[in-house]
Fold each of these.
Amino acid sequence: MLGVLLFTSLACAHKQVSTMVAPAPEASRVLVVVNANSKVSEELGRFYMRTRVIPTQNLLEVKTGTEDDITFDDYKSKILDPIEGDSASDQRQGPL
């Protein structure tokens, strides 16, 4: 099973997350996907990784638009394909 968290550029979402969150039970199996074109996405993703003690090699940066909508072709080429390619390379501490 592939655990994927896709952080979008929700400007105030990171302000509502508690800092008293326990590490994820199997943090090494979580892939955190952030949009490199969005500072908020990167900040939120890195905050989540620190809070849940997710290994840094489990971060995948994709480059996609910052608008609310995305075409299926862009989703597939800019988000899904990089996730599937990263998962196949198996650079993390155990399977996702």
Amino acid sequence: MADNEELATDMTDRLADAQQRLVEVTGSARSSGGEVRVTVSAGGALQRLSFGQEAERLPRNQLATLIVATANKAQTQAATQVMSIVQELVGDNTAAMRFAEEQISP
């Protein structure tokens, strides 16, 4: 019985740690020319968007394309961090990990 309680306590602690780490995950990216900088949350939501001086010289459609591409890079970075945390929690090559990979594709 004590072993089960220790196991449950350990799992609860690991889950709490993973939850806190997931809350702190962000992904950031910068376009190659420095025109755009983007930061996203663990779920990919845009948190910050800033422009370098170089952005002023771009046509709007090109700037929009660059924003989307840079945001995608930041989202990939965040998703990779999330998957790493999940993998530590559930293990590699498990049903839970395969499910997470299906839900979050970096």
Amino acid sequence: MLTPGPGTKGGEMAISGRDARRPPEAAALAGGSRPAGRAPVSASDRKRAVRLLRLGLLRHMLRSSRFYERVAFVVIVLSALRGLGRENSASAIERLAAWNSREMQRLARLEQKIKDS
């Protein structure tokens, strides 16, 4: 948008808005206020950039003491949960074996009762 600017003479106009810092010739050559397009990025360049970002993140994580604290915490929690799971399955098997022996004794008493009568 062209507006009369301070310090302009007569018919001269100052540029305001997006193109205020560009000379008028550059704004006209660039196609007005439309931003210039970027060069297309190839897929291999994009993949390389992602790999570099991942490598940087991995490097940062491996240098962080907080990361090692979290890993140690997760290992402790998982081993505790594993132990609880083993205890649960062992106690379940023990309960089942105890129930089975009681049931066998009950059936033996019932069988004896039937034979005696």
Amino acid sequence: MEALFWNGSGVPRRFRPIPPNSERRLRASNLQAFLDLAEGVDADTSMHHLRAHDDSEWIRAAIEDPELADEVRAAERADASADESRARIRAAIDRRYTLPS
């Protein structure tokens, strides 16, 4: 199952959550799109990508934020449900990229 879109330079730029045994192809080119897509992806697909560390690897390579990638990697490793892991990842992104109101 391909999880990343590789551009000509070999750097993954778009995250592609691909459900197992599906023709459906979704792409995220930034963190907001990533979060939006994560809300609509089923638990099995989320768990597949979490176990493969696709989220943290995409953030490390495409977003170029190793500290956020480390936080996401911790959420991927956690013994948590897909919803709990997604909530941890969203919280980590919000802490780093959302301005206070």
